[in-house]
Design goal:
The protein is α/β, with parallel strands linked by helices. The protein is built from 21 helices and 30 strands. An eight-stranded mixed beta sheet has the order 12-11-8-6-7-14-15-23, with helices on both faces. The protein has a seven-stranded mixed beta sheet with strand order 5-4-17-16-18-19-20, with helices on both faces. Strand 6 (150-153), helix 7 and strand 7 (174-176) form a beta-alpha-beta unit. Helix 5 runs parallel beside helix 12 and helix 14 packs across helix 16. The longest helix is centred in the N-terminal third of the chain and has 17 residues, at 125-141. The structure holds 5'-O-[(S)-ethoxy(hydroxy)phosphoryl]adenosine. 5'-O-[(S)-ethoxy(hydroxy)phosphoryl]adenosine binds next to helix 12, strand 20, strand 24 and strand 25.
Length: 660
């Protein structure tokens, strides 16, 4: 590989990396070992999904068997019909029953580092089981029952995993809210889910400072009257208010609880969790995931995408927050079911130094590392000396998720972190899909920097036009999934119409992902980006409308338009265009106030990178804001597209002029 090849654009990407020769040996075997095997398995899984998925499901425990594997009435899918199981049972009890009770299940590392290094806690399956049971009994003692939606707003502490598993155990769906969201984001989600119970922490450690989580919850409770009971874990010992009758300390509610709690036998289609995510319109929507299919899909994708080989001293580390789907599926559910210890790290990648992640990999001998392109770009910027200081030879498989990875970042990851010995699995999937959909299998698939390659087993992915016709190679179109898969979303909570409109209306009878894509001559998929008004900031989904609503809720702003723009680290940054009410001066002080206001309304991740004040926004005659033009302005490009419907050309001229 010479450097010239490096600068080729992704469109003409010709570098192909075969799985390393000694991959199987280094991993203790391989599940899918060649492209022939992959093709055979994929074909069989699509032709006979019943046989394929029931074989996988039979590796797990069920309390009652299914009468039918899948029942598909678009847009409604039911999997493992009439069966009963419990996901927590399959993550813990099943492995204890198989004799693995004393092996590590969860390894946690705190952010603060004392003289003896950071705090580390390891839970065996048996220990985790006991903690989960105690907390599950504590939840019950507060009146939480089957079907009650429990909101979880915590930092990355082991108790977060314990809380999630305890909810699953007693059949109370969880709704985890990312700890970086604000009080009003909590209130919106609590209202929508009608969630009466909330679990939080006093605070969370982030870059050496305390994020005051409980204070956000208190503020949220002034915006909604739904919260009846909260449980507060002490983590940072920061000062907090406790409201008598409503707030309970975690330590109190588990104090006298027995460490055994039976699993609720859940129906396959009982809700396991809700997870809110941004869409193009309105408030974030609650994506509904159910029990049986999600369990089976996260089990198989964890096993095959990462080639997890239990009994071969693996340590799996996914750096996502449990507040996102990646954390749900690949910190907790998928990995625990696979009998591989999952590592959870509390804090920031650059605390106390920019080598923290590499230090963690070296100390814990991490074998599987799963992170986001935005993090990789930040590491590149911080410099090669940081990974170079550490022994990363334990690594076997590297993963990425959340946004397209640029080939430069891919190559850096491959060379600097993988030392050219680790396959990179670029996994395309979504909150709605529950688990991986398009991804290489590390022992089989030749990888290409920037492409997520080929559909996972059982996944019928295609690039089509709006009539559903499959497009020839190298033509961009809509990315769809034509057949149901076990972990697909079952709905948008409380909004049937939105479920149908968003996912099953673009192309008749198929799931439309919201992304555009193309396939190359080898059939590899290349994700081109969102086709709706969702922007992907550092791999976090935000609706442009959410940010606009936050801006106009400030007194100064009359009208706002938000678009994505290329950003070196974040992938996509946020550009906001605002018209102001006459009483306000368009200056940097106001820019600062507006950024702080958006952070307050949604969370710091939604802060615009640039704010431009303008007298008017470019609109069509029918009054629609011309976002395409704004995107060009934000990128500093000349608009070459059709402008004939632009109401007032002078608006655009002014926006451009303002930039100089
Ligand atoms: C984007 C995260 C390119 C995509 C699991 C998708 C990706 C959205 C990739 C879902 C990838 C995710 N390559 N783009 N490997 N993975 N995306 O719901 O636009 O937070 O629709 O789920 O992220 O984001 P979400």
């Amino acid at each position: 590989m010479n450097e010239d090849q490096n600068i080729k654009s992704s469109l003409s990407e010709e570098r192909v990396f075969d799985p390393p020769q000694d991959f199987a040996e280094r991993c203790g075997g391989v599940w899918v070992d060649s492209m022939d095997t992959y093709r055979e398995l994929h074909k069989a899984s699509i032709e006979d999904p019943e046989n394929f998925w029931s074989t996988v499901a039979n590796e797990l425990d069920w309390f009652e068997p299914w009468t039918k594997v899948v029942d598909w009435n678009p847009p409604d899918a039911k999997w493992f019909v009439n069966a009963r199981t419990n996901v927590c049972h399959n993550c813990l009890d099943r492995l204890i029953n198989l004799g693995h009770g004393d092996e590590p299940a969860l390894i946690w590392e705190g952010e603060p580092s004392g003289d003896d290094g950071p705090e580390v806690k390891t839970y065996t399956y048996r220990e985790l089981h006991a903690e989960v049971c105690r907390f599950a009994n504590g939840l019950k003692s507060l009146g939480v029952g089957r079907g009650d939606i429990v909101t979880i707003y915590m930092g990355m502490v082991p108790e977060l995993t314990i809380a999630v598993l305890a909810c699953a155990r007693i059949g109370a769906p969880h709704s985890v809210i990312f700890g970086g969201f604000s009080a009003s984001a909590i209130a919106d989600r609590v209202e929508d889910a009608k969630s009466r119970f909330l679990i939080t922490c006093d605070g969370a450690w982030r870059r050496g400072a305390v994020v005051p989580l409980k204070a956000q919850v208190d503020q949220a409770a002034t915006m909604t009257d739904k919260i009846e009971t909260t449980i507060v874990l002490r983590r940072c010992d920061n000062e907090i208010d406790m409201r008598v009758g409503r707030d309970h300390f975690w330590s109190d509610i588990v104090a006298d609880q027995p460490d055994d709690c039976p699993c609720e036998p859940m129906a396959s289609e009982d809700m396991l969790f809700l997870l809110y995510t941004s869409g193009s319109t309105g408030k974030p929507k609650g994506i509904v995931h159910t029990t049986g299919g999600y369990m089976v899909h996260t089990y198989l994708t964890s096993r095959y995408t990462f080639n997890l080989r239990p009994g071969h001293s693996h340590v799996f580390w996914c750096t996502a927050d449990v507040g996102w789907i990646t954390g749900h599926s690949y910190i907790i559910y998928g990995i625990l079911q696979n009998h591989v210890p999952t590592l959870m790290y509390e804090g920031a990648p650059n605390h106390p130094e920019p080598d923290r992640f590499w230090d963690i990999i070296e100390r814990h001998k991490v074998t599987h590392f799963y992170t986001a392109p935005t993090a990789i770009r930040a590491f590149m910027k911080w410099g090669d000396e940081h990974p170079r200081k550490h022994d990363l030879s334990s690594l076997r498989v590297l993963g990425t998720v959340g946004e397209p990875i640029n080939p430069e970042a891919w190559m850096w990851y491959h060379r600097m972190i993988g030392r050219e010995q680790c396959p990179i699995v670029d996994t395309w999937w979504q909150t709605e899909t529950g688990g991986h959909m398009i991804t290489p299998l590390p022992g089989a698939t030749p990888t290409v920097p920037g492409s997520c390659t080929l559909p996972f087993l059982g996944i019928d992915a295609a690039v089509v036009d709006s009539t559903g016709r499959e497009l020839p190679p190298n033509e961009g179109g809509l990315l769809v999934i034509r057949k149901p898969w076990p972990s697909m979303l079952r709905g948008v909570y409380g909004d049937r119409q939105r479920f149908i409109d968003t996912y099953f209306s673009a192309v008749e009878g198929m799931y439309f992902a919201g992304d555009s894509a193309r396939r190359d001559d080898q059939g590899n998929f290349w994700i081109m980006g969102r086709m709706d008004d969702v922007i992907n900031v550092s791999g976090h989904r935000l609706g442009t409308m959410e940010v606009e609503s936050a801006l106009v809720s400030h007194d100064a702003v009359v009208e706002a338009a938000v678009v994505g723009m290329p950003h070196e680290i974040k992938g996509t940054g946020i550009a906001a265009f605002c018209t102001l009410s006459g009483d306000y001066t368009p200056d940097d002080a106001l820019r600062g106030q507006l950024r702080a206001h958006v952070a307050e309304e949604i969370g710091p991740i939604a802060k615009p990178d640039i704010i431009r004040f303008t007298d008017a926004l470019p609109k069509t005659r029918s009054g629609k804001i011309m976002r395409r033009l704004l995107r060009d302005v934000a990128e500093g490009k000349e608009s070459t597209g059709d402008m004939t419907t632009l109401e007032d050309f002078s608006v655009l001229a002014k926006l451009r002029g303002d930039q100089e």
